[in-house]
Structures are given as C-alpha cells and as structure tokens.
Amino acid sequence: MIDDYFDNETFTRIDFTKTKIKKGEYDNCIFSNCNLENIHASNIQFIECEFVDCNFSNAIVDNTAFKDVNFINCKMIGVKFNECDPFLLQFSFKDCQLNFSSFYQLKIQKTVFKNCNLQEADFTETNLTNAVFNNCDLKLTVFDRTNLENSDFRTAFNFNINPEENSLKRAKFSKENVEGLLSVYKIVVE
User: Fold this and answer.
1) Stretch 118-134: mean pLDDT, rounded?
2) Looking at the domain that runs over 1-102, which CATH code has it been given?
C-alpha cells in the first residue's frame, strides 16, 4: 500500500476523531481548528507544517515525524513526543497547552516555547541547548539530567531546576526567577 502525499493543502475544522487521518507525508500543510484528540497519528510525516488552534491532546505520535513544524494556540496535553521519530525533529510552540507532555531523551536544541503552559511536562535527559522558554509556566516540570546550556529562562516562571543535576552552562535567568535554581537548597530568598 502506498502512503498518501499532501502538498500545500489546508485542512480546516476537520474532526479527525470521526474522519480518520490518512497515513502519509504532509508537506507545507496547514491544519486549522482541527480535532486530533486521542487519534493515532503514528508513522505520519509532517514536514514544514503548521497546526493552528488544534486539539492534539493525548494523540499517539509513535514514530511520527515533525520536521520544522509550528504549533500555534494548540491544546497538546499529555502528548508523548518522546515516541516520535527523532530524525530531523524540529518544532516550535506558541500559546500552547503542553501540560503532562513528555520530551524524554529527545534532542530538541533551539526549540522555542513562547507563552506556553508546560506544567508537569517531562524533560528528563533531554538536550535543550539554546532552547527558549519565553513567558512559560513550568510548574512541577521535570528537569533531570537535562542539558540546558545556553537556554533562555529569563521570562519563565514556576520552575525548579537543580543546578547539580542539570547542565546549565551559559543558561540565562533573570534576577526575579533565580530562586527556581535555589529551591533545592531550601534557601529563603526575599
């Protein structure tokens, strides 16, 4: 069976819980106001695609390729990105709900998270060098043996990062949020 190929197509207001998403390669496609909640999006290639105002929560992305994909104002709760295809993996997130999502052991350098809710997300053993967390809520987010070198946390908030368990060389923090690095030491900052 030959997979389908889609190029420069726009998918608007499609409920993929009722209309099954076709396996294949999607190049330069836009998904707008689509519902992909709980769907099996396994073994699909998304290349230079954009998802706008979509619900991607709990979607199964086993071996799914995200190559230069932008997510804007998407609900993506509980997505296990660690199961997607790591080859040429590159994505960005703006105004997204990413609570309970997992990025375990991914190499996602230079990833930009802007105005995102990342509560209880998992970045264990993730390579996030040069990543940007612009105005992101990182409450109870797990950073464990994570490479955060050169990453920008200056406008991030609610994070707890243990400097002894993570690589933080040249990472950027603001005076207002530096206490997120000290909480492990039970220091009172006033």
Assistant:
1) 98
2) 2.160.20.80
